[in-house]
Write a structure and sequence with these properties.
Blueprint lengths: L1 E4 L3 H21 L2 H4 L5 E5 L2 E5 L13 H13 L3 E8 L3 E16 L5 E2 L3 H4 L4 E16 L10 E7 L2 E7 L13 E4 L8 E8 L2 E9 L1
Antiparallel strand pairs: 1-3, 2-3, 4-5, 4-12, 5-6, 5-7, 7-10, 8-9, 8-11, 11-12
Length: about 210
Amino acid sequence: MFIYIFDNYKSRKSASKTYWKTKQEYTYKMEPYLVENISPMPYDAKNALVFYLMKNENYYPKPFPREIILTSLAMNNLKELKTIVFVGESEHWQVKITLEYYENFLYLSPEEQILNTKGCEKAGGPIADSDLAHLFHPHLTYKKVDIDDIDKIIYHIEKPRGSYSGSLRLFNKFTTNPFVGFGGSGLGATKEDILVMTVRWNGNEEVMELRAK
């Protein structure tokens, strides 16, 4: 395991981006089955970048080694993940959208030195760097008992800072897979936001508002 600590988020992001660029270039030149055996597992959080090399030279061994699971949990904990749950319903659908996100900041002290703490924020120190990301998990449940075959569910979500569209399929007879998701960098939503979701299926359409519970 290799652990790299950077002075700021920008440098860590640059190093991570360089790794992926190098990996893509190498993948282009090598046979795919060879690339999997030489690629380390990368993890990043705040100003830390961790590379885990497999002991048995398999990129995705089954089952995963305990070390990989612990590394992943540690890095996610370092990101200080937060959760907001939005709920709403229409005549035919009950919807829960779970938002997982983190928002980490580096602040400048009065001496213009970067501090990896939030203490300087209370003192009015300016933000030197930030690392923001979010992931939405939409979960739909069909409320009626007269369900027919639903081939595909199309949804569109409007929020104050953008919108998302996608499609889902029923995981079993009445619900969708709760583990699928979408997201990106930046702030996804806040507890005060109201999400407007449109659901289309089998030629039908319903619109509902979702609020944080």
